Amino acid sequence: MVPPPRSRSGAGRSGAQRGRLRSAEDRGLLESRAMAVPLAELLTAGGLVLHSFNHERTFDRPGAGVTVLFRIQAVDQDGAEITVYAGATTSPAAARGPALRTSLSGTQLFLWLHPRDPLLPDLAWALSPEDLARDVFAPGTSPAGVGVRVTGYRPLRRAVVHASSGLDGVYLKVVLPGQAEELRHRHRLLAASAVPAAALRPGPAHRSAVVLEQLTGTPLLRGLAAGSHGLSAGDLTGLLDELPAAALDLRRRPAWAERSRAYGQAAAALLPGQRMRVQALAAGVESLVAELDPGPVVPVHGDFYEGNLLAAAGRITGVLDVDGLGPGHRVDDLACFIGHLAVLARLSPDSALPGELAAFQAGFESAAAAAGSSPAALNARAAGVALSLVPGARAGRLDRESNALARLEAAEHLLEQAQGRAA
């Protein structure tokens, strides 16, 4: 049964309150079984019949709507049951591309079948063995020998695909139209530095996808969880010292902690019962970020955390996701690492991660002071990073709400440390 239309009046509420309410309502709608109606409509347009569907993941971006991915069992025209994936979003930006436009309970929705992301027109190309055999791999490569798999996907924003042909492997980063050349420029800058970023691989210049060589090493998280990485805080700050000065001429992106109010709204939408806690946390981060000196503007990575670092034999062998390379404050790169690590330590208290957090936090507090900022600013901005991770909580070892609460607790503890150091 389709639920009745919902009131959107928001009478008597502030803009922030209306934003939280709408985000929570949109999330609830897109995660509900009522989505069977628009999903069936989407499949019918493709000659398929809906059999069943499951919610895979929700993306709630402040100011950019709610997007949900689904795994669907459908029946094709031959009567065979197949698995397909679909996306649905409340973001009006999706109207710029080929998407099914419909509505449910008074809410406008846009839907698509993977890989036809309406804002990533070259995702289908990046997942086509025929196209990759022709455009990326050596002449004469057989499409039958090309394997592809998605390793990362942010709907309406970007995707990462690994493609291989025999022993030859590449990564393809699919971005919004017009962003590929900017990303290639960042990789060229890093190629002239000592930072071990991926080298560019020749590919079609007209595609909104950047082809990158594979890097060696394993994700740093494995070594952190086991306490076996052999790296120090100084090793990571030394890596940041190698970022090219030319990055100062690039476009600056806001640091995660500078958007604490927006991330607080998204977190409150996921945890409506903790709204007061989330508001207090976001306000505390915002206040300290404004009050405490972040230090001079220097080249920054922009998303510097363990998930974007590869390591081997006690050294960093790969730096990933360099889209945010540009001008910023060193303390924000350090805070990004600490904010993520604090969340991981909270979620895995029996691993080596809590001890790793303590060691890197101490080292980065000294590094923040040496970079013209302070330990208090580091922890305040790390709290903002941890807060930004709350809306992305997923069910795993913990259910989604418990996962989100653990992230919230990690952020609160970091803020308490910041307030204690700032007093």
Provide the fold topology:
Layout lengths: L14 H16 L5 H10 L3 E12 L5 E10 L5 E9 L10 E5 L2 E7 L9 H4 L2 H7 L10 E9 L3 E8 L2 E7 L5 H12 L17 E5 L4 E2 H7 L6 H9 L18 H11 L4 H17 L5 E4 L8 E4 L2 E5 L6 E4 H18 L5 H18 L4 H14 L11 H23 L1
Antiparallel strand pairs: 1-2, 2-3, 3-5, 4-5, 6-7, 7-8, 8-9, 10-12, 11-14, 12-13
Helix pairs in contact: 1-8, 8-9, 8-12, 9-12, 9-13, 10-11, 10-12, 10-13, 11-12, 12-13
Overview of this protein structure:
The protein is of the alpha+beta class. The chain has three domains: 15-113, no CATH class; 123-213, Phosphorylase Kinase, domain 1 (2-Layer Sandwich); 218-422, Aminoglycoside 3'-phosphotransferase, Chain: A, domain 2. The chain is built from 13 helices and 14 strands. The protein has helices at residues 15-30, 36-45, 123-126, 129-135, 180-191, 220-226, 233-241, 260-270, 275-291, 330-347, 353-370, 375-388, 400-422, and strands at residues 49-60, 66-75, 81-89, 100-104, 107-113, 146-154, 158-165, 168-174, 209-213, 218-219, 297-300, 309-312, 315-319, 326-329. A hairpin with a 5-residue loop joins β2 and β3.
